[in-house]
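Hey L., structure's done. Input below.
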Amino acid sequence: MENNIFIYILIMAAVTYLIRMLPLTLIRKEIKNKTIRSFLYYVPYVTLAVMTFPAILSATDTPVSGIAGFLVALLLAYLNQGLFKVAVGSCLVVFLFELFF
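Output:
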């Protein structure tokens, strides 16, 4: 079989469409199960975290500076600082780590 990129794109589009369409067609009632509702509530956050965390580690020359920036961001977020302060603080720590280490 010859590698045809259009076949791969068509299969990918069909699978993506089915994943989005099936819940709309199969589930007609409101979901009342607390476990399923809780699971569906956290899916976007988990997906974002799964995509973001590897990028944090691989965005810099050394993973140590990425980890340091991540830890500072966690600390600032835990201390209820705003999003801007968390972003600036973590970027500043990464910059300083890359500059001096």
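The mean pLDDT is 92. The radius of gyration is 21 Å.

-- N.
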